[in-house]
Design a protein that fits this description.
Organism: Blastococcus deserti
InterPro entries: DUF559 (IPR007569), Restrct_endonuc-II-like (IPR011335)
Order of helices and strands: EHHEEHEHEEEEHHHHHEEEHEHH
Keywords: Endonuclease, Hydrolase, Nuclease
GO molecular function, one term: endonuclease activity
Structural class: alpha+beta
Number of domains: 3
Low-confidence stretches: 1-6
Pfam families: DUF559
Oligomer: single chain
Radius of gyration: 23 Å
Distance between the termini: 63 Å
């Protein structure tokens, strides 16, 4: 007879749990546990995020495989990959493992010095070092999301401009080096959210001057606020308002703040999550406010 459900916490292989008498196949198939991948299950009370799926991937990865890119970045203060995004795993070129559905396998050389082992919720997690993680992010992810991930890692102190420049120099001429060299100069650790990064990159790619992230606005020596993005010479501000900005308290607080900024001679463009779905339109609004034409980026 299978033991109680409390005996199975964390992430586990269904076949092993059945063999050990911890659960029956009927219980696994009934939906009592969350299915992550083929034969990989999780306690349904665990938070459903990308790290949960990455921990599940660890159970089926061969010894030479390592979590990388956006999946490793979830342990380096850049948890932007969603639970439905494939887990990124790197394996040596001669490794035949392809992984189950939901895992993206990238074949590439990786040295022992580029691998870390961390203890996460009693699970040992193998992942690439921050610098090697930055390499996979810049070379495998779309440009704007890659910059957002690097922004967060720089802000948290896991990588910096000097270490990224060193990788660019050491790997010059290798596969992906041109893409890496294109992505890294766009990274800016002053950005404090993924939406800020996406808007900033979209503006730069459209030929607009790069805005200043987290700009401190003052008037006559008085602090008026720290804003997401600013073009100080044009006295233009762009603010991204997440979901928490739309409760009544935040609305009143934001309105008073914007009134002070406008009274001091600043123009304010307010963006929401809906604007991220049509960044071209948002950038056009910004360009019109700056009085500048758009160019292809």
């Amino acid at each position: 007879m299978a033991r109680s459900l409390q005996a199975l916490s964390g992430v586990f292989l269904g076949s092993h749990a059945v063999a050990d008498g911890l659960v029956t196949r009927t219980q696994l198939q009934s939906g009592l546990y969350r299915r992550l991948f083929q034969d990989v299950y999780a306690d349904p009370h665990l938070a459903v995020d990308h790290r949960l799926y990455a921990r599940g991937a660890m159970l089926v990865m061969p010894p030479a495989a390592v979590l990388a890119g956006r999946s490793a970045a979830a342990w380096f203060d850049a948890p932007f990959a969603g639970s439905t995004d494939p887990v990124l795993v790197v394996v040596p070129p001669d490794c035949p493992w392809r992984g189950p559905r939901g895992i993206r396998v990238h074949r590439t050389d990786i040295g022992p010095a580029e691998v870390l082992t961390l203890d996460d919720s009693d699970d040992l997690v193998r992942l690439t070092t921050p610098l090697r993680t930055a390499w996979e992010i810049a070379t495998l992810e779309p440009l704007a999301p890659a910059v957002a991930l690097l922004d967060a890692m720089i802000r948290a102190g896991h990588v910096d401009d000097g270490s990224l420049a060193r990788i660019a120099r050491d790997r010059r001429g290798q596969w992906g080096s041109r893409r890496f060299a294109r992505v890294v100069p766009l990274a800016d650790g002053r950005s404090e959210s993924r939406p800020e990064s996406l808007v900033r990159v979209a503006c730069v790619r459209a030929g607009l001057p790069a805005p200043v992230p987290q700009f401190v606005v003052t008037a006559n020596g008085q602090f008026l606020g720290r804003v997401d993005l600013a073009w100080p010479e044009a006295r233009l501000i762009v603010e991204y308002e997440g979901a928490h900005h739309f409760d009544e308290l935040h609305i009143r607080r934001d309105d008073r703040r914007y009134e002070r900024l406008v009274a001091a001679g600043w123009r304010v463009i307010r963006l929401s999550w809906a604007d991220l779905r049509d960044l071209a339109d948002a950038v056009s609004r910004i360009a019109r406010a700056l009085g500048l034409p758009l160019t292809a980026g």
